[in-house]
Amino acid sequence: MLKQIIYILLIMLLLHNLRLKVTGLILSKSKIQMCEDRGQSAAKEGIAGASDPHNVVDGKACKKKMVVLMSVKNGQKEGTEKLMATVSRVRDETEGEFAKMYNPFVILLSMSAITINYPFIYTGHTVNNEPWEEIILGKSSWWKAISRYTCYDAWQARDGANHRPTCGYVYNEKKKRIPNSQGFCCICSLADKLDYTLSQARHRQRGGVACQFLTNNPQSSAHCMRHDDLWYSIHYFRPSYKDFTIHIRAKDQETTVENNKTVVKWVNGGEIVLSPRRKAGVGKNGRIIAHYVGTFQTNTALPVLQSFYLLVPFLSKKATTGPTDHDQMKHGASRYLVMPRDMVDVQNGMCNKIGVGFRSFRVQASSGQGPGCHQLKGDCLRNQPKHYFDEDVARVDRGERPFWFPAQHGKFVGAKTHKETDKSVFAYELEETVNSIVSLEISADDVIYIYSRSTGEIVRAQADHFEASSGNGKMSVVIRNTGHVTAEFTVTVEKCTKGLHMIGERSMSIYAQKTTPVSFSLMTTGFKGGAFECEVTLFDARRAKLAGRNITFNTSSPCMCEQTTCRCVCEEGGGVKCITKEGKFWVNPKQHETVNTNNWWSKTFGWFGGIFKKIGSFFGGIFSSIFGIFGLAKYIIPIIVLAIGACVFFNCGGPLICKGFLKAAPIGKVTKLLPSFGSKKSKKKNKKKEKKEEKESDDDDDDDDDSDPPSYDEAVENKKKSKAKTTIKKKATKAGKSVKGRIQGRL
Fold it and tell me: Molecular function terms in GO for this entry (predicted)?
């Protein structure tokens, strides 16, 4: 009994001295007597000593072995926790004998960060970065009545046939024409020209063409789908898995004498590496057997990417820049695109989706007419990878969380190829702290569990202002280990103003005299902006408070706009800006002109057409100059009709018919039939005027009677004139009566 008491006192004294030396704290210490019994079956097999429990160290009947379950955190550095074990005898492998060992060895545990790996597999499909629209205007002349001959978009029976499409064809790697790659034409029809001339409500022409009669301006446009030099390969994600490594390193204590001084050194004593693929290992000399038990589940769900596509960029052979120079490739995997599957269409190539195809572009307005001819330029080519890339670049530049880059789903590590499986994976680092359990079987007489404890401080803590419910809130905290040992610290964010989602704590291991940044995501529970305050607290390994700070920040209300075809962002002045992903287009300054073939009839009609073209160009220049000066171009058709009517009127006796009509059917008589055309006063005035004219006519006759009698020739000439006047009066009277009868009949 006395010996046991003395033994306990010696152990307590030893532990007290040990705690002062390592500047740590002893958490637990115990002795366990464990024996290995191989059973009677082993004895029957002839194994010596099998029936007796056997100690592998000293050959005695029982072995002292400590079984320890230890937890290790992801990202925990070596030296944060350690086990100190003491062994009285070990086997010398060189001499093959047992030797005494009085110096202990130390077991150090560390764990890498946990990465969530997403294997991705190529689907066999590629999409273009930014398909764009080339617009080619058809060259026209004012004398050409039919505009459809200035643009062609029909598929030819064979390549090289007559009337090759204005856009041409796109060829695949086998030099074969790709169907529907010839684009489509938009042609001014007769109805379009009449609407433009006579109506104020005119249809928009996609190519910017003004549909007019008798003009040299283009009356047709070809719309061609072209491709960018950058392409994206489409990949789908497989279910994720976790990857990490746990390092169990042993260090032996050696004592040497140097310059008459005793020096204690720790030398490498072997290492065991565990992972989800290797769950057990044995250390040097069989002193340690380690088993990976498992990892606790996270509080938050891991991202599920099976409903997304991964877009990986690559350059075509025609590209003039390299991957290191291209803006969309030089940043590597951090600028790949992770897009929802419903935004990508690699099967049908629908308009305004990633992967738009030639067929969808052409069916907008094939054969010269269709709704696509009245759409905006670049329609059907919106929402392409280039548009999403530029949008996220702008968001990152503003310090916001991206929508389409990999960082949208968490802390992105990169794309890598696994060494053992040779598979490509997309890796994210788990930001939440979780514990993994390791079982250690240690051949030792005694084990001491020690963890380091140090002092620390908060160097900086701040949160930027952000938009409510945007997911862009971020709090940054910088921690410094002011002690002299590697230790573990915990940072919490608590006592926040109402309206913020719960913020989890962060644990990290920090080397002595080093700093480590810690970030927290902030999210409001509502859309209303306001002021918020939170308390940041730093704890050591024993959960003792080391420092604390209060942080204040503001949130603004998000931008809302009543439009569904764009994304709303706030402007600096407080307004709302609508951002749309419009398709790219380019208007070719060189107009397309129909090329004649080498057939004899084409040459013949081409010769005549050339003559008419020169004549038309001459008069067309005159017409365009005249009507352009006075701004009468849009009234050219009514002016031409009025000119033709005036010509017929004056050259076909129109004035004489009107004169006779007026004399045969005076204004007064007409107004009598049409009361709305005059009043009673106007009728009296007309009667007085008629009497006055008759009196003047009689006076003229009297004057003629007083003059000298005419000669024979003059008499004949006067007779002819009188006869002609009588004939004209009869015709006029007859015409007037006819008109009068028509008026009466209508009334």
Answer: lipid binding
Helix (H, G, I), strand (E, B) or coil at 247: strand
Distance (Å, rounded) from C-alpha 171 to C-alpha 724? 83
Q: Round to whole Å and give the CA distance between 677 and 451.
A: 116
Domain finish residue from 535, 561, 587: 561
Packing angle between helix 636-651 and helix 654-664, nearest 10 degrees? 70
How far apart CA 255 and CA 268 sit, in angstroms, is 14
Q: Which residues of 272-289 are buried (b: 16+ CB within 10 A; e: fewer)?
A: bebebeeeebebebebbb
Q: What angle do CA 448, 262, 287 make, to 5 degrees?
A: 35
Q: What angle do CA 311, 306, 124 make, to 5 degrees?
A: 45
Model confidence over 633-683: pLDDT tens digits? 445 556 677 777 777 766 776 666 676 666 665 554 444 444 444 445 555
User: Based on the domain organization, do 432 and 465 belong to the same domain?
Assistant: no
Alpha-carbon distance of 669 to 409, in angstroms, equals: 94
The token pair at 698 is: 């009689």
Domain that holds residue 206: 131-227
**How far is the CA of 157 from the CAs of 90, 222, 594, 602, in angstroms?**
90, 20, 19, 20
Q: Tokens standing for 710?
A: 């005419």
Q: 3-state DSSP call for residue 393?
A: helix
Same domain, yes or no: 221 and 255: no
| Three-point CA angle 210, 214, 215, nearest 5° | 50
Q: How far is CA 358 from CA 131, 132, 137, 280, 354, in A?
A: 10, 11, 20, 57, 13
Express each pLDDT in 234-269 by its tens digit.
999 999 988 888 888 888 877 777 888 878 787 888
pTM of the model: 0.62
Indicate the pLDDT class of residue 308, thresholds 50, 70 and 90.
very high
Rounded to whole angstroms, the Cα distance separating 593 from 140 reads 8
Q: Which of 425, 395, 418 is nearest to 408 (CA)?
A: 395
Q: Strand 63-73 vs strand 33-34: parallel, antiparallel, or unpaired?
A: antiparallel
Supply 383's token pair: 């929402």
Considering the domain architecture, whether residues 222 and 186 belong to the same structural domain is answered as: yes
Number of domains present in the structure of the chain: 3
| 8 A C-beta contact, residue 73 and residue 112 | no
Residues 292 and 417 in one domain: yes
Locate 517 and state its tokens: 């940044």
Q: Which DSSP state fits 709? A: P
Positive or negative: CA dihedral 35, 288, 88, 68:
negative
How far apart CA 348 and CA 386 sit, in angstroms, is 20
Strands across the sheet with 487-494, in order?
A: 466-467, 545-556, 530-539, 487-494, 506-510
Domain assignment of residue 239, yes or no: no
Residues 195 and 70 in one domain: no
**Please, are residues 375 and 205 in contact by the beta-carbon 8 Å criterion?**
no
Q: Examine the fold and report which residue of 533, 561, 589 is the final residue of a domain before the chain moves on.
A: 561
DSSP element (H, E) containing 513? none
523 in a structural domain: yes
- 3-state secondary structure at position 686: helix
Structural domain includes residue 205: yes
Report whether pLDDT(574) > 60.
no
Runs of H (alpha helix) within 174-318 = 190-198
What CATH code is carried by the domain that includes residue 489?
A: 2.60.40.10
Look at residue 2 and tell me if it is in a domain.
Answer: no
Residue type, 44: K
- Could you report the per-residue pLDDT of 22-31, keeping only the tens digit for each? 333 323 344 4
Mark whether 249 and 164 lie in a shared domain.
no
The answer to whether residues 442 and 463 belong to one domain is no
Strand, coil or helix: 367? helix
Does residue 253 sit in the same domain as residue 154? no
End-to-end Cα spacing for the chain:
146
Q: Model confidence over 50-94: pLDDT tens digits?
A: 444 444 444 454 445 566 777 777 777 666 666 666 655 555 455
Tokens 């365009």 belong to which residue?
624
Q: Residue 188 phi/psi, 5° resolution?
A: -75, 115
